[in-house]
């Protein structure tokens, strides 16, 4: 007996070895659509189109296969994640957009990658359907427009509605449907330049009967259940375009803090126009109060200034518009400059020469600006030697000049420029200028030791230029070495004390800075300038910043740390440490990297190694975590039906996984299995011992039993080595009846989006489509396909093949059931299970092709003859097919639809079932019961031996 079980164990290992081949697989992708779709065109014009109504929920599910489990990312159109996605949706299998908007239509891509081969990408086009309320506008022919519509006038009624798909229009006059040619006085046409999106009704030479109620009906033919929309317009001899009156001045000049009220009224127009206010530069201020035609702006500020327009519209002719400008009084930014005698080449002020004092102020409105001059606090009037002028505002707006001719000693003193606005309410601005024997032009120098200035990155630095002279001018700072902005983003920065302060200086700010005198608040002479050099030191930038190295004992490790950039770059040293213990240190030579070698790794060698590369500015650090911790296991998701029922109230689950990089660390001696019911706190743990080395790609299995139906469980798997516990992996195990390997019965009516775990064959030409008659569009192929599901419900779902273009004759679509395991009645003998396979089919249309049913056993790669087949038009009704099957091993059923010679060839199936035992009545259209394929007896023997082994162990 021990020999028998020994042989069985060897056979088990052999079969597992065969089964494990190809466990690692590159990703594949398929996009499933759920949510609230109103129509799905499968492979229409070589692409899949998913149609949804605006405001409903878009839900796309990306079904992937491959091992390790692929990472999923959703993108839109240009290949980058749209900012309209919910963040949690971009990297999930299901992309969900609630209340979708029209601009969110487009092509969506699902990208899956797991590091094996090329990423898998599938796309689907989302078409958002909508229909806005139509609008009717009325116009007279050019040259004939008057205030009212009189006889012998030609009138155009234009109907517009935004929609997707393109809208169709129809017109009614009262209850009469208007069509081209139905009335000689009416023309209906769609102008070329609008590409059919508008419908224009032309009334030629208005007649008394043309004064009536006109209705425009906009329709998208009830696609997505969008109803028609209608707008009514009454045309009469009083119909007129709007006219308005603006009961305010233009412009309106106010002081800050005042309340402004703008009043607009209609003076004509039929129907009554609607009034609105708009602002020229954008939206109305948030504090605005709008009451029909009255706009109130409380406590205005300079930001509220601008052009405000009242617009009246009644869809007759062009909207009426009148505007006014709000000007908010303001005085700001007073400056002065002194100009020495322009007729002599001298920058100094001298007795007997001329000197000019200029004063400039920014004023709103500029025409209200007034200047006055004081000398030593007393009013100064213009005279032959003291000439006061206000320059042309087009040349130098807001500027006044005081010319002192033949300067005398008695002219020394303090001159004050006073600026005010005529309307008052704004504080005056006064600027003092002192003229004396000590008034001299500026001189600019850089203090000793302030250039070059060396700073560390992140510090606050002050660049300084000393300016002498009286009065001291404003200093302008700019970059001297390149055309780049200053730290505040401008090209020039002003300084009143000659100091440029830079907070948190960065390496990009290294360079030359120019300081120069401005004419403002100083002499209007040739600018003085100086250069300050700034050098910003920064610590080394290194790579890698962090690396985890997993390695088993007695092996060698090489760690390398490289300098990318640093300043200063020539004074560098390195220090290698394990924790706080110094291992080695030295100076850099000509190389830009350093390495540390660990030979014959021991347990005490595990830990975090750091390499600090140091210069005057600081240190850059490479970190290496050397550990013997095992990599996490990777759960295998692509197993067919790993879940089965073994007793009425409990179920079991075949847990499968591979080990990531098992040979990188010491041998894995066991796994710690933790399991807890979803929503519970307590974990139940046990160890799964492992004998021998785990090979890369080896599929490991463990049966979870006594799981309570229909609860979900959280499973945690942790590898254990001599080093200790490795990284854990967690997955959720869910109960998913009725798919069970030990088959008793199976039934699917395709009502759920998951379609009972049916799958589309990857080797066919196109896919089966899940649909119902309520939403299926039959306008393209009206004489084929079912008008309801098998039960007669238009809401019920079924699967069918769409044979419209681009499908061609002979192309095949194959749909596969889940794989079912067959339990032998005799553990040591052959199986003799019998099942009844049943389904309903609908084959209506003059171009119907062929429907085949196949039995495919596990391990079978090629198809033999179909066990059931039927071709040609069977009429507009559902029929049932039943056939006995006798599988000898795990099996699945395949339904194959073959496209006929034309587009009227849709084949549908519904209510697929598999029941234990033979069919009660002789199955119709049954060619034969499928015999085991070649080589099936080998699998039969293997399965029998394995089942015997597992039965003995229990």
> Which word captures the global form?
flat
Counting helices, strands and paired strands, the structural category is mainly beta
Fraction of residues in β-strands: over 45%
- Write the CATH architecture name of the largest domain: Sandwich
Query: Using DSSP, what is the number of strands?
Result: 70
State the end-to-end CA separation.
Answer: 16 Å
| Spans where pLDDT lies below 50 across 5 or more residues | 1-21, 78-84, 144-151, 738-742, 824-831, 923-954
Outline the fold blueprint.
Blueprint: H1 2-20, E1 25-35, E2 37-44, E3 47-53, E4 58-67, E5 71-76, H2 87-90, E6 94-97, E7 106-113, E8 120-131, E9 135-140, E10 155-160, E11 163-164, E12 168-173, E13 176-178, E14 186-189, E15 198-203, E16 213-219, E17 229-234, E18 240-246, E19 252-254, E20 260-270, E21 274-279, E22 289-291, E23 294-297, E24 306-313, E25 320-328, E26 330-339, E27 355-364, E28 369-375, E29 378-380, E30 386-390, E31 399-404, E32 413-421, E33 429-435, E34 440-445, E35 453-456, E36 461-464, E37 466-470, E38 475-479, E39 493-495, E40 499-502, E41 511-517, E42 522-523, E43 529-543, E44 546-550, E45 557-567, E46 573-578, E47 581-587, E48 593-598, E49 607-615, E50 618-627, E51 633-635, E52 643-647, E53 650-659, E54 670-677, E55 684-689, E56 700-708, E57 713-721, E58 724-725, E59 729-733, E60 745-748, E61 759-760, E62 769-772, E63 797-801, E64 812-816, E65 835-843, E66 850-857, E67 868-871, E68 879-885, E69 891-898, E70 907-916, H3 936-953
Parallel strand pairs: 3-8, 19-25, 26-42, 35-43, 44-50
Antiparallel strand pairs: 1-4, 2-3, 4-6, 5-7, 7-8, 8-11, 9-10, 10-15, 12-13, 12-16, 14-15, 16-17, 18-20, 20-23, 21-24, 22-23, 24-25, 26-27, 27-31, 28-29, 28-32, 30-31, 32-33, 34-37, 36-40, 38-39, 38-41, 41-43, 43-45, 45-48, 46-47, 46-49, 49-50, 51-53, 52-53, 53-56, 54-55, 54-57, 57-58, 57-59, ...
Helix pairs in contact: 1-3
